[in-house]
Amino acid sequence: MWSTGREVAAGDVVIVWQTRELVQPLLITPGKDFNSKFGHYRHSDLVGIPYGSRVDSRNGRGFIHILRPTPELWTMALPHRTQILYLADIAFITSWLDIRRGSRVIEAGTGSGSFSHSVARTVGPSGRLYSYEFHEGRAEKAREEFIRHGMQDIVTLTHRNVCKDGFTVENSADAVFLDLPAPWDAVVHAKKALRKDRPARICCFSPCMEQVMRAVSALNEAGFTDITMYETLLRPHEVQQFPTPLPLSHVIDKLKDMEKFREEKRLRQIANHKRKREDAEFSEPDKRARTDELNAGDQNSLQAPLITVREEDDANEVEAQMVSLSKVCHEVRGHTSYLTFARLVPFMPETLESAAQAPPLTDN
C-alpha cells in the first residue's frame, strides 16, 4: 500500500498536514502547484524530501508537513462520497471480527473506502478483502483509488447489489461486514459466504435502532448466536500542566489573614462613625480639620493590603512544582451508528450423527 520509499517521489500520494482540522491527500505531479491559505508550493519542490518534513511556503505565508499515508491518516483526509467509518469504530470492528493477517473478509458497502484501507493493511498480502458496492459511480472511483494505492492484489471490488444477487464467494469468508441500508436482506447471503469448518463472525453497521431490531431478527432466524450490540463514542482528553495545589494549612492561614483584615476594617469604620458624631460638637474650623483627618484615614484604609502574605509563602509558591492533569474536551464526537455483532458456529459432523442415532423421546 502506497510508497515505501524514504523520500517523496513523483507519482506518490502524500498527506498534506496543515492543521488538525485541515488534512488532505495530494498526488505529486511535477509541474503542478498546491495553493492554500498557508502559502504556495510547487510539486517539484516536494520531490526528494523525506517523509515527515516541514516545508515552508514560497511566499512566506506559512508551512505544511508532508506525511506518508496510513489508513488512519487516509480516514482523516479522504474525499467523502458517503458517510464513513471513523477510527474508533474501525478498531473495534476489526478486533471483534478477529480480522488478522491472512484473513478473508467480505465488505458490503465500499462507500468512500475508509474501512477498506484499514482491513487491507490488516489482512496483508496473504489475505483477501472482497468489497461490494451497488452504486456504479462510487465503485469506479473506489477501484481507481485502490489501484493508485497499490491495493489491487489484496482487494477485489465488485459492482453488485448483494441484497438481491448475493456474494460471489461461498463457504470461504472468515468475517462479513455489512454497511447497508437494509442489512437484514443480506444476512442469508452472508451465511452462505461464511466458512463452515470453524466459527465465523458478522457485523452490521446501522444508524438507527429500528434497523438494529430488524437485523437482530434476521440473524436469529439465520441461526447466528452471541448476538450483541455496541455503540462506540470517542472522548478525547486534553492534558495540561498546572501548579501543585497548595497545602490545606496554607489556605487556612490565608483565610485567617482575610478575616483579620475584615475585622480591622470593621473597627476602623466604627471609629470613623464615632468621630463623625463628635464633629457636631465642634466649631466650623475645628470641624474642617477633623474632616481632613478622617479623609486621610480613609485613604490609608483603602491602601491596606487585602491579604498579608509571609515571605516564606512567596518562596514556596515560586518553588511549586507543575503537575499534569487531564480533562475531557468540550467537543466530543457523538453517535455515528450501532454495531451489531454475531457468530456463526458450525455443527460438527459428529454432533449431527449423534443426534440422528439418538432414540426418539417417548412419553412414559
Automatic annotation (TrEMBL):
List, in alphabetical order, the GO biological process terms annotated in this UniProt record. tRNA methylation
Annotated GO MF terms: tRNA (adenine(58)-N1)-methyltransferase activity
Q: Region Disordered: which residues?
A: 269-303
State the EC number(s).
2.1.1.220
**Skewed-composition ranges (Basic and acidic residues):** 277-293
* Entries under CDD domains matching the protein: AdoMet_MTases
Summarize where S-adenosyl-L-methionine binds, as residue positions.
Answer: E133, D179
Name of the protein in its database record: tRNA (adenine(58)-N(1))-methyltransferase catalytic subunit TRM61
